[in-house]
Amino acid sequence: MTFGITGFGAYIPRLRIERAAIAAANAWMVPGLKAQAKGVRAFCGWDEDAVTMAVEAARDCLAGRRRDQINAAWLASTTLPYSDLSNSSLVAGALGLARTISALDLAGSERAGTSALALALESRTENVLLIASERPRAKPASSQELAFGAGAAALTLGTSDVIAKFLGKARKSAPFVDHVRAADAPYPQYWEERWIREAGYGALVPPVVDAALSSASLAMGDITHLVMPSPLKGASATLAKSLGFTGSVAGGLEDGCGYTGAAHGLLMLADVLGRAKPGEKILLVGFAQGVEAIIFEATGEIETRSAGRGVSGAMSQGQTTDSYMRFLSFYGEVQPEWGMRSEKSERASLSAHYRVAEQLAGFFAGACEACGTVQFPRLAYCVNPSCGAPSSQFSDHPLTEEEAQVLTVTTDWLSFTPAPPLHVGFVQFKSGARLLMEMVDVGAASPQPGMPLRLVFRIKERDKVRGFNRYFWKAAPATITREH
Amino acid sequence: MASGIKDKVAILGMGCARFGERWDVGSEQLLAEAFDEALADAGIAKNQIDAAWYGASLDSVNVGNSAIPASTALRLDGIPVSRMENMCATGTETLRGAAYAVASGAVDIALAIGVEKLKDTGFGGLPIPYKGTLNDLWLPLVSAPAGFAQLASGYRAKHRIAPAELKRAMAHVSWKSHQNGALSEKAHLRKAISMDTILNAPMIAEPLGLFDCCGVSDGAAAAIVTTPEIARSLGKRDLVTIKAIQLSISSGQESTMSDWDGSYVRNTRIAAKKAYTEAGITDPRTQLSLMEVHDCFSITELVTMEDLFVSPEGGAIGDVLDGFFDRSGGVPCQIDGGLKCFGHPVAASGLRMAYEGYQQLLGRAGARQLPSPSLALTHNLGGVPYLGVAAISILGLAP
After folding, report:
1. Contacts (Cβ under 8 Å, ≥6 apart) of A173
2. How far apart are CA B207 and CA B173, in angstroms?
3. Looking at residues B237-247, what average pLDDT do you find?
4. In chain B, what are the domains?
5. To the nearest whole angstrom, how far is the Cα of B214 from the nearest Cα of chain A?
6. Does B51 reach chain A within 8 Å, measured CB to CB?
7. Cβ of B120 under 8 Å from any chain A Cβ?
8. SS3 call for B131
9. How many interchain CB pairs under 8 A, A with B?
10. Which strand ranges, in their side-by-side order, compose the sheet holding A225-227?
11. What is the pLDDT of residue A343?
12. What residues pair up with B213 in beta bridges, in sequence order?
């Protein structure tokens, strides 16, 4: 039976910074960065991490599809926010997936995404949701600061409605250390580029590609798309030449996103799936301590798959800033003076959190079966004064995908937020539910009453005492305004 | 049907500390300032007080919990002293507790006193609130101006008012209070401000600029209450009695259900209706002599004029710009400067409002004195417009 990719989704943070702004700020010490200063790269808001981006990519992948059939949620990343707390479980909770699924974190190298994909293909795990997400940090004024981006991609795999069937694969490990980041280190350390290109990509990739082709009984000329992620500019084009590949070399999403480490292979793959035609064959290469090569063929189903945001949608939804300090602040590279208002304790009560964890993560309002009122938060009695039924009569009503709009709003310059000003107001849902929410990614124009909104999963507060961040949903304009 | 509190309780004496940035004193001295004046005004000795209700709202920067800080500050020995906290309605709540105790016959003389020491935080604005472990997990922690700015957003949308038009009416609200505050000896801010200064001030929470926000002040105020009979037996001739005290508190409807449109404060409307019934007021626009309302922000005062049924719905902008609430207008509002200029030491504010009403009714308001007032309304709004506490008291001359 055909096994393969049954759906894909992508997320790239709306925040983008002009590389020229980064290069200009560092020109006093590294004038050479100017050579890399083209286009924009994506960066996370202070309230985004590998978990929140994974949720957004998965929502894009699962849009309009049933979530109760997902059997597993695998999350690949080298920048997971928690070392000992299941990151994939947080993602599964926000997606409202069944509690019986296999939630697994896959980490340890930038091949984590493609290796996880290979594992799913080998094990033929039915209805697995595979997400790769990365929020890499780079030292200020480094080449990586310009090359890196942020983003996430999600795939579902299975046997029904396959849009890209699995044809073959190969792998070979090698103790090749092109870069390293120790467990507690914030930044990667790279070896010389020329050595990585020649002794790494040039020497290690071709034999594995050949093995993958022969496992699928294909020749290089049968491949339409070559997907090879690399932080090094032009690396995949050079590799294509040495492979004798004459098809389409997938772009590295440099202008708009930037390199996203363990997520980049799947993100580029999702980009190709967004435009692949039936019959086209795709070769995906993952590189880190060896090579993984996987081949897919697009099926007729790919044309019937309704397009979500995808990579092209995510790439086009940028809000560009030229504020390098803002970028540095969001990544913790500088600690500005936020004033005494920022000094409150952000320590969360874990026991209090557990009581409402599912309600909060999946944003489950209570629908009162006695009177129909949809309400959040769920307290002991129905809020409707003419009802007052006990909460035992509430059923789960998820709000994450519901139509919503601004009722009232203000722009608050007084409250502490790491991204001032705070946009906050009442969000009115179609079901009648309403609550006060933070509004993010608002762009140049302030939200106005009646503006359509969509919900996004974000960090509500970073716990500087114990490291347990509180996640919750925020509202963002459903359609974006470009300039920021 | 309850008979209500009308004319069952008389004010024997009141006191109010000088409000402002009182770097010179702590809360215990502020309490003493208000208490000494109230005792002298009442003409009684401290040991004649049978019970006390003490309010302090933001204890994290204030005095700590329980009533002990007040009983020790004032050396109230061996009598019941209760601590009250209900946000900005705290002061009115202390008056309600003391008045109910007197009206019930449980005590003869009771003290209501509120204090807030806000200028020990080290920064401007109110201290950072804490909303409990559940709310902390989901509710955005907004500043007070951001909470009240929602009213401006809702009001503009409902009445289709251009932002500039509403901003101008809001500015007049603050301009008027600065005019009045200049005549108030104990007020925090005693300087008249031009409309241009107000309109062009830095934005705090759109559309509330700096001068749309009230002062954050230290202060204390106190009332000593008893029955009209005891007051007369103590030699008082002109008596101010309590005509009504009513509260309404959110049950979550506005912030959870879809009915509220963001343009008004439901609790004020409910409390006002009850208070007018209790006091026997049928037409507040013509019957009220003066109002001290919760002008924490200019938009709050503007909307409150409608919520108190003094202006028709959508008509407050016209009334404000016509000067109906100025000192020479139909119902002067914030004749002492209001929260805006007299200042807003949270738990003292309700009692400060009553203090001004009391002085006006007794003809003791000096340069601010209005011609022969007969009914004074006070109004507090704790929390935020959509999740809060409204407290209204009405004072008047005894029959």
Report:
1. A289, A290
2. 14
3. 97
4. 10-122+218-240 (3.40.47.10), 144-214+242-397 (3.40.47.10)
5. 14
6. no
7. no
8. coil
9. 128
10. A102-106, A72-76, A128-134, A151-158, A4-11, A164-173, A290-298, A281-287, A225-227, A248-249
11. 84
12. B297
Q: What percent of chain A has pLDDT over 70?
A: 98
The domain defined by A349-363+399-477 folds into OB fold (Dihydrolipoamide Acetyltransferase, E2P) (2.40.50)
Distance from CA of B204 to the nearest CA of A (A): 5
CB contact under 8 A, A436 and B252: no
| Shortest CA gap B251–chain A (Å) | 7
3-state secondary structure of B382: strand
pLDDT of B219 higher than 90:
yes
Strands A72-76 and A102-106 come out as parallel
The pLDDT value recorded for residue B52 is 98
Measured over the CA atoms of residue A93, residue A96, residue A99 and residue A103, the dihedral's sign is negative
- Going across the sheet that includes B290-292, the strands are B81-84, B51-55, B110-116, B219-226, B10-16, B240-249, B387-397, B375-384, B290-292
DSSP-derived 3-state class of residue B225 = strand
Question: Which token pair is B70?
Answer: 């007040």
CA distance B139 to A119: 41
Position A307 pLDDT exceeds 70: no
Q: Which CATH number fits domain A4-330: 3.60.21.70, 3.40.47.10, 2.40.50.100, 3.40.50.360?
A: 3.40.47.10
Q: Do A407 and B149 touch (CB under 8 A)?
A: no
Q: What pLDDT digit, counting tens, does each position of A243-279 carry?
A: 999 999 999 999 999 999 999 999 999 999 999 999 9
Residue B145 contacts A, CB cutoff 8 Å: yes
Q: DSSP character for B329?
A: S
> In B, which residues are within 8 Å of A472 by CB distance?
137-138
Give A441's contacts (C-beta < 8 A, 6+ positions apart).
Answer: A14, A15, A45, A319, A456, A476, A477, A480
pTM for the full predicted model: 0.95
DSSP single-letter state for residue A160: S
In whole angstroms, give the CA distance from residue A242 to residue A228: 13
Quick check: B162 contacting A, CB < 8 Å? no
Of A383, A411, A416, the CB nearest to B205: A411
Query: In whole numbers, what is the pLDDT of chain B averaged over residues?
Result: 96
For B63-103, write each residue's pLDDT tens digit.
889 999 999 999 999 999 999 999 999 999 999 999 999 99
Q: Do A410 and B262 touch (CB under 8 A)?
A: no
Nearest CB to B146; choose among A356, A412, A437:
A412
Cα B63 from chain centre: 21
Q: Where are the domains of chain A?
A: 4-330, 349-363+399-477
> In this complex, do B140 and A438 lie within 8 Å of one another by their Cβ atoms?
yes
Cβ neighbours, 10 Å, residue A217: 9
